[in-house]
Write a structure and sequence with these properties.
By secondary structure, the chain is α/β, with parallel strands linked by helices. The protein has one domain: TIM Barrel (Alpha-Beta Barrel), CATH 3.20.20. The chain has 12 helices and 8 strands. Helix 2 packs across helix 3, helix 3 runs parallel beside helix 4 and helix 4 packs parallel to helix 5. The protein is globular. The N and C termini lie far apart (about 55 Å).
Length: about 260
């Protein structure tokens, strides 16, 4: 029998999304001590990035592993849709994979195949990895990983928008994640997140996701904008920066001390 750690599904973020809840994450750290603190601070997931960071996935493994036994699930953004990059992140213990610049159905199918063990996919077996529970039946372990892993392609281009229904038709896609800045550039409204053109683009994505039963998400909430504005549009997966929250918390704690 599979014995998952904690309550419910072995990936609580996936359970929350399936139940219609909003999940909020923040950037994980290469430093394990920082990731360990953030993973128990209230966020639903920590996002470990190799696309726009100076780190390779194998360097982020200690930070990912520092989330073991804690609330927040580790989710990794790889730097390409190449299967070896996805494998590195999965072997490090990621419970979700974000892939940037996904433009076609074929790319999406390849991503899903790289994430899943045979017969659902083509992932190479490297032994038990991450917090997916324990079982004497190894096939049950692989089935639990296949079922519990979050698979998240990023949509950032006009080509992707033109193929959006084909991309969303691929079984296994859980979240379709908007890359806010790249998407604005492609739409010709560079970083103008409040423009009608940009907002209509988001509405197109949200409507397509609803047709296919996939959660739309934002990689980050644009600066100065209310997260609930995007939640009301249907975007229920996003990150917020943790440093301002930490600073506010320190200031609040110090303000209560007689000095």
């Amino acid at each position: 029998m599979m014995e998952g750690k904690g309550s419910g599904h072995v990936n609580a973020v996936k359970d929350l999304l399936k139940s219609g809840k909003t999940v909020v994450g923040t950037a994980g750290s290469v430093h394990p001590d920082v990731s360990a603190i953030l993973a128990d601070s209230g966020f639903d997931f920590l996002l470990f990035d190799t696309q726009h960071s100076p780190y390779e996935m194998k360097e982020l493994a200690p930070g990912i592993q520092a989330t073991n036994g804690k609330k927040a699930a580790p989710i990794a953004r790889v730097n390409s849709h190449h299967s070896e990059q996805i494998l590195f992140a999965l072997d490090a213990g990621a419970r979700g994979i974000i892939v940037p610049m996904v433009n076609t159905k074929a790319e999406t199918e390849a991503i899903v195949a790289a994430c899943r063990y045979y017969p659902a996919g083509k992932r190479s077996n490297g032994g038990v990895r991450g917090e997916w529970g324990q079982t004497a039946d190894y096939q049950a372990y692989m089935d639990a990983v296949n079922d519990g892993l979050l698979i998240i392609p990023m949509i950032e281009t006009n080509e992707a928008i033109s193929n959006i229904d084909d991309i969303l038709s691929v079984p296994g896609v859980d979240v379709l994640l908007v890359g806010p800045s790249d998407f604005s550039i492609e739409l010709g409204v560079v970083l103008d997140y409040e423009s009608d053109t940009y907002q209509k683009g988001l509405d197109t994505i949200a409507a397509a996701c609803k047709r296919h039963g996939v959660v739309p998400g934002m990689y980050f909430i644009p600066p100065g904008m209310d997260p609930n504005f995007f939640v009301d549009k249907g975007f229920k997966f996003f990150t917020l920066p943790w440093a301002p929250m930490a600073t506010d918390g320190v200031k609040s704690a110090l303000a209560g001390i007689k000095r």
